[in-house]
Amino acid sequence: MKEETIRKALIFITAFIFLLYILLPYIWIVLTSFRTDADVMGKSLIPKEFTLDYYISLITQKPVEGIVGSATFAVIKNYPWALRNSIIVSILTTIISVTAAAFSGYTFARIRYFGKEAFFNLVLISRMIPALIILIPLFIIIHDLHLDNNLFTLAVVYSALTIPLDCWLFRGYFMMIPKEVEEAALIDGCSRFQTIFKIIFPLTLPGLIAVAIFTFMNSWNELFFALVLTHDKEAQTIPVVAAMGVGEFGTQFGYLGVITVVGTIIPVVIALALQKYIISGLTLGWGKRQQTFT
User: Fold this and answer.
1) Would you say 239 and 91 are in contact if contact means Cβ atoms under 8 Å apart?
2) What is the DSSP string of 201-222?
């Protein structure tokens, strides 16, 4: 009994520390969005001066009085465009990645053909290559084709980066479904596509939603490819505009805080609304995925 109590206490303490590790940075950036830059730069960790000037500035598109610098002006003016661009790119990336990965994962889970396992391993290996290695060659190719500074191009690049992992997740989900269920549908007269859309996808709905949210979050937070492949407000996303807060006249902590808080509203709302699907989707198919490594 004593050992069980100690074990539960250790689990609780570990979970609490992990929760603080996740929440403290976000709480700090929320507080920063309400503090003046002078207060942030002060020696005290406890906020002393609170203001809504940065939120008002973001809404009215006018700089906070007393703050100068081209970086500040760019952050204010470009943020509405960045919010729009992030939404478009994240949705496009999610649609492309989930669609391609779902059918690819189904192929690896159900269809038999020569070299399937070798090809699947190559897909996983491609995900192990650091993305920054291909950044410059990719930029040269895209620039020569005059496809840079384009939201669809950015979505395609993001999709190429996320499809391998999404495909691996989908393969595990589809392998959880007994083959007899699919065979029964085929015997009843369903075509392969009807079986996929009417049987397979509905049974793996939590997994589909979990992968979609995972893909959306990754594309929403990505910085380096967006920074290199976009050049103006018509294509820049929130992380790129946030990086502009560090300018020639110093770092605008208030604006960075506001941009971060407002920029996380959409992902947080999505995660809270679909959290039950995320949890069930992350655990669905885990047993099958473990078997791929044994």
Assistant:
1) no
2) HHHTHHHHHHHHHHHHHHHHH-
User: Hey, what domains does the chain have and what are their CATH numbers?
Assistant: 55-291 (1.10.3720.10)
Residue type, 227: L
Which are the contacts of 167, defined by CB distance < 8 A and separation ≥ 6?
100, 101, 104, 105, 108, 123
Closest among 202, 200, 206, 183 to 276, alpha carbons compared = 206
Closest residue by Cα to residue 93 from 150, 158, 49 = 158
- Who contacts 92 (Cβ-Cβ below 8 Å, separation ≥6)? 151, 152, 155
Given phi > 0 = left and psi -120 to 50 = alpha, else beta, which region is 148? beta
* Sign, Cα dihedral of 35, 38, 39, 41: positive
Distance of CA 135 to the CA centre of its chain: 19
State the Cα–Cα distance between residues 162 and 217, nearest whole angstrom: 11
The residues near 15 (Cβ < 8 Å, ≥ 6 apart) are none
Q: What is the pLDDT along the chain (294 residues), one digit of tens a residue?
A: 677 888 888 989 999 999 899 888 888 888 888 887 777 777 777 777 788 888 888 888 777 776 655 556 667 788 889 999 999 999 999 999 999 999 999 999 888 888 888 888 888 888 888 888 888 899 999 999 999 899 999 999 999 999 999 998 898 888 888 888 888 888 888 888 888 888 888 888 888 888 999 899 999 999 999 999 998 888 899 998 888 777 655 677 778 888 888 888 888 888 888 877 777 666 665 554 444 444
Residues 6+ apart with CB under 8 A from 205: 277
Contacts of 88 (CB under 8 A, 6+ apart): 151, 155
Q: SS3 for 285?
A: coil
Residue 72 near residue 247, CB atoms below 8 Å:
yes
